[in-house]
Amino acid sequence: MIFLRRLVQLVVLLIQSGLWGVAPSPTDEGALRAGHGEHGEPGHQEPHKDSYSTFASEFLESRYLSDDGYPFPTAPPVDPFAKIKVSDCGVTKGCIRYGKPGCDAETCDYFLSYRRIGTDVEYEMSADTDGWVAVGFSSDKKMGGDDVMGCVHDDNGRVRIHHFYNVGQWAKEIKRNPARDEEGIFENNRVTCRFKRPLYVPREETLVDLHLSWYYLFAWGPAIQGSITRHDIDSPPVSDHMISIYKYEDIFMPSTAYQTFNSPLCLLLIVALTFYLLMGTP
Description:
Layout lengths: L1 H16 L8 H9 L16 H9 L34 E6 L10 E8 L2 E8 L4 E7 L8 E7 L5 E9 L2 E4 L6 E8 L2 E9 L16 E7 L1 E2 L2 E2 L21 E5 L9 H16 L3
Helix pairs in contact: 1-3
């Protein structure tokens, strides 16, 4: 490989020095005659550099060579992942947040947004995990027989969109993937993604029509070599009512750590304890 690289660099030097060029075109010959006098005396001639040698020298220049000595073009710059705007929640898109009160797409345990774009629905998902994050579309709030879209972080650092179907408590990957315009990033120990999916699809067991309302199932968890494993919590959250993509809501669901004082039993115990402390012991 080193010999091949040296050989290519030698060709570059020959091209740049003009010792190795291409046959002059008729235009070049005319320019050459114009550079001589009437009787063929050499006159003033501008240095000539044909377009082929210019291209070749730039393309084969050593900084464009791989470690193995093969030339390759420079890749175009990649646009960074646009951050999810929570200021649009409830206005131009619907959002569902699960976690600490006041959390956003970068701090919630789980975050989902949805909005209509023409005949598509755009979804944004983010979760505090290094594996996968998913949303399921259910008719009964229970896992089983559900259409699921998931974003999975693989061992190469990429985040890919996958289509699953819940068979009981097991998510089976489906080859037919309705997602398009996929984006994903793994950053700050969070998996975040964005994709579009058609509103209407041909009737099929593993795909639902998104123009209808569904209960949304939310789940996230670890992945092994790009394959999802069991979700992080035993009872993943689910929307308390059916979600319609025609209604942009901003829904907050407190995570388990912040649900304690919302429990009716807990409130009753607090009232009883307060009464006991105020009245004193007999």
